[in-house]
Design goal:
The structure holds two protein chains of two kinds. By secondary structure, chain A is α+β, with helices and mostly antiparallel strands. Helices cover 21% and strands 29% of the residues of chain A. In chain A, helix 5 (179-190) runs parallel beside helix 6 (223-234), helix 9 packs parallel to helix 10 and helix 13 packs across helix 14 (545-552). Chain B is mainly beta. Classes of the chains: A alpha+beta, B mainly beta.
């Protein structure tokens, strides 16, 4: 096998040989290589098949812009990663990579037939073809498209890697460690700004670090040597943090940026273990310096996508940085000076090369240098076609006409094994636009440039359109001095010699004698969109760049059009006959390069996915076999299965025990708000629908809270503890929102009220004991407390001590049974619970969970806010008009209760439902209709709560039904998938309408 | 992501706050005397302008205090922050 590594460089450690597998075959590279440079060193260009036509594709670039060399890393179900750019992946021992989007393999791919039928697959092919017949979509088209779509394969098992997040604050953030970024960072740090410099590569220096042309010098040194000195110097600065292998993913408002740091992706398997793989930096910077550089443009001509065709500057980097030549007989095709640097570098290393230049002539020092070396230059020529299936082997060039619109003269055929193309440079304005910055268009070299209008960020270097070294350094120094209000003189005497010039001949779509319809001039390599596709879109009436982009999918692949967007815009502008600058651009959205989900999620996986709240009694519930239900963040016991009971059986047993003898519920999760102040009663008057002024001290009252729109928001019992002191309870899920809402009114609408709100949900634990034997159990726990109905009636409150610890006891009931809620300081909750269980043993005191609680309250027709209501129910809809005070002047939501819409009689209203077959249990959420034959079926409402009641020995349900209030006795139908269930509308209260059990 | 200068705590990340919509909408003193349309105006209608907007924010994961903010919705710059009950700064209209 040929070895294309032709010389040593300081960036490749030839003493450290690294073996890796590509498509199952073992190869060798060296430490310092990327996967791409190692493949090229082994003579491998063909690395994948294109997305649509399955054409052979090769490595094009050496960085983040790579459209073709994307591969699947690893094969383990949990660790494999798709769509990794081989140009960015550092080589490590044991790396396994494979090409994507080809079957059976990259050299012989059956999908290649798409290339032959490509005239049949124009832009918008999918939109146009899979329209009809309609019935084909689900069974034929969609499965077919799904089979052939997508690039790599996702992992199918959870990611075992560790990821991390870090928040940092800096005075100055410099993005990009090229020559301008290094100067900016040095100036900032030396002037006492706490500075962070990030660069996505392994080492700093950008493209200057491997620059070795004698005609580009700083202070009489090669620019690369000069820069290495600068890098040594900035490493000594204590104010400066340097992060390499770190790329900015997103630039949000207020200078908040996200960066991804790669920590172990370059390490062999055994060294990755137990280390953080990637870290997401969340950076706040007072000022941001953008020095992200530019990327080289390809050229758009017929068959410009063959393996062996690369960007000219990438050929240069592979040669001078990695020591690898991309071919032995290279042609460089350019419209500007920069390909000449590549040419001279190649020549120096003995690689034969010739230049095809679109320009009629050029005369910079660099070009004179090339000419003097005897390098053949074809000025005013254009490449019209290339040949070679799996790799380029020759090409044709022709002369350009005066205006550049056509070709003239005879074809000249040239053989080659590699073609470098340079269409000039595109400034990376992503960060600038993501931050909200606008762009200007510079006509002379057809580039979009940052329009500076902000005090917090600035673009310098080639991302600002300054391409030659002299300009870069001078302008950077001036701009940074102004931007940071400093006066740094470090670079005043720097002597820069740069023999490159900026002129270029820009032609977006190169002319050809062959009609466009018969060419393959690729604009977007990854998504396979051609110049023809873009012109077709315009012909079909698309005008907006955003529409053309979506119709042709140009710029929508994983590389987000880094190489293709400018050409697409240029071809649109030329075809439509408008000025390029007036078209605008598509939106540059984050992330700049793809991020792993792991990086975004960080440590918040598994048990750290969400906060878990547990009551003091939690441990007891676990020990006693409870199944848990998530209620907000709380873990609440759902039911306590005994002897392998299923849920139904457990709930039936618990419900029966609670009504027959006694049950106990952990009610600690209910929201508790402590309300104090001389206006506390008035405050409650305003937030609840019923009256509170006359509630006696030591009494409890149920209250309903509305939104200002009149809809039920929350409910709960509030106790008057003393003259100016209340304890409010809220639903478990609503606690935080209720507190927020109350604070809102208190602070913004009624600041004159003397009221203080404190959340005490976590401060108290609550055991709720209910059932006919509850009083006896209470008596054992509190022998000195007079529990008689006269002294301690329903809806009242007492304080007593349990082994010297204060308890608040409320006699309130959510089950319809005689019931006591004992509140104790949370740290004693577990002991309280155990004492209750002990005291209740002789009465078969049965712990029950939320499911039984729901069943018991449904038997009594008590609503659960959020289950029987959904933010569209008024008190009247719930048949709870009794709780709305008619006398009160105002309360939250009062005015809305007689808006024209809320007084409608055909609103959905809460009713009870009884199934004709008492054993049939309805499904919650099931639709309710009157008549199944009418079309379309008129939906009257839906089931909100449904249970089998062991105490009534029949199925019961609550539902909301249009005009339900007037429907008692009405027969309705619940249509299910395979049957219709007949039901009758009933009262919402199914058990003990007279409330006898409260005092039983 | 905004940096919001809470008048009680100082500059904090936006994630500590929740937005409460347009500011200076006063709850009617006598809602019962309003027509449906007038009540709907108070209840539902918000300006949602492009440009300088007065809005309410709550430092919900901090001091829990509500306060007012002047924000230019076209570029998200917060121009001024002031406490509840204070008059809006006159230089923004």
């Amino acid at each position: 096998m040929a070895n294309y590594r032709i010389h040593k460089t300081e960036y490749i450690d030839e003493t450290k040989r690294v073996s890796f597998k590509y498509d199952g075959k073992t190869y060798f590279g060296y430490e310092g290589d990327t996967l791409a440079s190692a493949l090229l060193a082994n003579g491998i260009h063909l690395v994948g098949r294109s997305f649509k036509y399955h054409r052979p594709r090769g490595i094009v670039s050496c960085g983040a812009e790579e459209p073709n060399a994307i591969c699947q890393i690893g094969s383990k179900k949990d660790l494999t990663e798709p769509n990794v750019r081989a140009t960015e992946l550092e080589l490590y021992e044991g790396l396994e990579a494979s090409s994507q989007n080809c079957w059976p393999n990259v050299k012989f791919d059956i999908g290649g037939i798409n290339n032959l039928i490509s005239p049949l697959i124009p832009a918008g092919f999918y939109y146009k073809t899979f329209m009809w017949p309609k019935s084909f979509w689900k069974k034929v088209y969609e499965p077919l498209i799904r089979l052939s779509a997508g690039l790599g394969k996702s992992p199918t098992e959870p990611d075992p890697d560790i990821y991390d997040h870090k928040y940092v604050h800096y005075d100055v953030l410099v993005i990009g460690g090229g020559v301008s970024g290094i100067i900016a960072a040095k100036m900032a740090a030396k002037n006492n700004f706490k500075t962070l410099l990030v660069d996505d590569k392994k080492i700093l220096g950008g493209s200057t670090i491997y620059q070795n042309n004698e005609s580009i010098k700083i202070d009489d040194k090669l620019s690369s040597e000069w820069l290495k000195n600068e890098i040594q110097e900035i490493k000594k600065l204590s104010n400066l943090t340097i992060k390499t292998r770190t790329s900015i993913a997103a630039y949000h408002g207020y200078n908040f940026l996200l960066a991804k740091e790669n920590l172990t992706d370059h390490l062999p398997e055994e060294k990755k273990k137990n280390k953080i793989r990637q870290r997401l930096w969340k950076i706040r910077a007072k000022k941001v310096v953008i020095a992200t550089g530019s990327i080289e443009r390809p050229l758009v001509f017929n068959n410009n996508d063959r393996p062996g065709i690369l960007l000219s500057n990438s050929i240069n980097k592979y040669l001078d940085y990695y020591g690898v030549t991309c071919g032995e007989n290279i042609i460089l095709f350019t419209n500007n000076d920069s390909a000449y640097e590549t040419s001279i570098s190649l020549h120096k290393k003995g690689i034969k090369n010739i230049i095809v230049d679109l320009r009629k002539s050029a005369s910079s020092e660099l070009i004179k240098q090339a000419e003097s070396l005897g390098i053949k230059i074809y000025f005013n020529h254009v490449v019209t076609n290339t040949f070679g299936y799996r790799k380029i082997n020759s090409l044709e060039i022709m002369k350009l006409s005066e205006d550049g619109n056509t070709t003239i003269g005879d074809k000249i055929k040239l053989s080659c094994d590699c073609l470098g193309m340079s269409g000039g440079w595109t400034p990376m304005v992503h960060m600038h636009t993501q931050s909200g910055g606008k762009l200007d268009f510079r006509d002379e070299d057809q580039v979009f440039l940052p329009k500076e209008n902000s005090e917090d960020q600035i673009s310098i270097g080639s991302c600002n359109g300054d391409f030659d070294l002299e300009n870069i350094i001078d302008k950077t120094v001036n701009k940074i001095n102004k931007f940071l209000y400093i006066d740094n003189q470090d670079y005043q005497d720097t002597n820069i010699i740069c023999s490159k010039e900026n002129d270029k001949r820009n032609i977006w779509l190169l002319p050809n004698k062959i009609p466009l319809g018969k060419t393959k001039c690729f604009v977007d390599f990854q998504n396979d969109s051609t110049a023809k596709d873009i012109k077709l879109a315009l012909k079909e009436g698309f005008r907006s760049i955003e529409h053309v982009k979506r119709y042709t999918t140009t710029g929508m692949a994983t590389d987000q059009g880094k190489l293709s967007n400018m050409h697409a815009l240029g071809i649109i502008a030329d075809t439509a006959g408008v000025k390029m600058g007036t078209l605008g651009t598509t939106t540059f959205r984050p992330p700049f390069t793809p991020l792993t989900f792991g990086t975004l999620v960080g440590r918040n996986v598994g048990k750290f996915f969400e906060v878990v709240r547990k009551t003091s009694m939690h441990e007891w519930h676990v020990k006693n076999n409870a199944e848990f239900e998530n209620v907000g963040q709380w873990k609440r016991p759902w039911y306590y299965p005994k002897n392998r009971e299923n849920m139904h059986d457990a709930v039936q047993r618990e419900s029966k025990a609670a009504r027959d003898s006694a049950g106990i519920l952990d009610a600690s999760t209910l929201g508790k708000i402590d309300i104090q102040g001389s206006d506390a009663s008035e405050f409650l008057n305003r937030v609840y629908t019923n009256a509170w002024s006359k509630l006696a001290i030591g009494k409890c009252r149920y209250g309903l809270m509305l939104n200002e729109d009149g809809m039920v928001y929350d409910d709960g019992v509030t106790t008057r503890i003393s003259e100016n002191h209340y304890l409010m309870t809220t639903t478990t899920g609503g606690a935080a929102n209720v507190l927020s809402k109350l604070e809102d009114y208190l602070q913004t609408e009624w600041p004159e009220l003397d009221v203080y709100l404190t959340s005490v949900t976590d401060h108290y634990s609550t055991a709720s004991i209910c059932g006919p034997n509850s009083k006896k159990i209470l008596n054992k726990l509190f022998p000195n407390l007079d529990l008689s109905d006269e002294n301690f009636p329903h809806m009242s409150f007492k304080e007593d001590k349990l082994e010297n610890i204060n308890c608040r006891i409320m006699r309130i009931s959510f089950t319809g049974e005689q019931s006591y809620e004992i509140n104790i300081e949370a740290k004693y909750g577990h002991s309280l619970w155990k004492m209750c269980i002990e005291a209740g043993k002789e009465f078969n005191l049965t712990p029950y969970g939320t499911e039984t609680m729901h069943l018991l309250r449904a038997e009594k027709g008590f609503i659960i806010v959020g289950q029987d209501t959904d933010g569209t129910m008024t008190p009247s809809d719930l048949q709870m008009d009794w709780i709305v005070s008619k006398k009160k002047f105002d309360f939250i939501g009062k005015r809305s209760l007689y808006r024209s819409d809320t007084v409608r009689e055909d609103r959905k209203q809460l009713v009870g439902l009884l199934t004709d077959d008492p054993k049939e249990i309805l499904e919650e959420g099931a639709q309710i209709v009157l008549d199944v034959k009418s079309k379309p079926i008129d939906m009257l409402g839906h089931v909100t709560s449904s249970y089998f009641s062991p105490n009534l020995n029949k199925s019961i349900a609550l539902a909301v039904v249009r005009s339900g209030k007037t429907m008692k006795g009405q027969k309705l139908i619940i249509p299910m998938e395979n049957k219709n269930i007949n039901v009758t509308v009933s009262d919402t209260i199914f058990l003990d309408k007279e409330n006898k059990r409260l005092n039983a | 992501m905004f940096l919001i200068n809470c008048p009680f705590c100082g500059e904090r990340d936006q994630s500590e706050f929740s937005s409460g919509g347009e500011a200076h909408i006063v709850r009617p003193k006598q809602p019962t005397e309003l027509s449906d349309d007038e009540w709907a105006e108070y209840l539902f209608m918000r300006k949602n302008i492009k440009g300088i907007q007065f809005e309410r924010w709550n430092h919900v994961h901090g001091c829990r205090k509500w306060f007012n903010v002047v924000r230019d919705t076209s570029n998200d710059k917060i121009l001024s922050v002031y406490k509840m009950g204070e008059k809006p700064p006159v230089n923004y209209k």
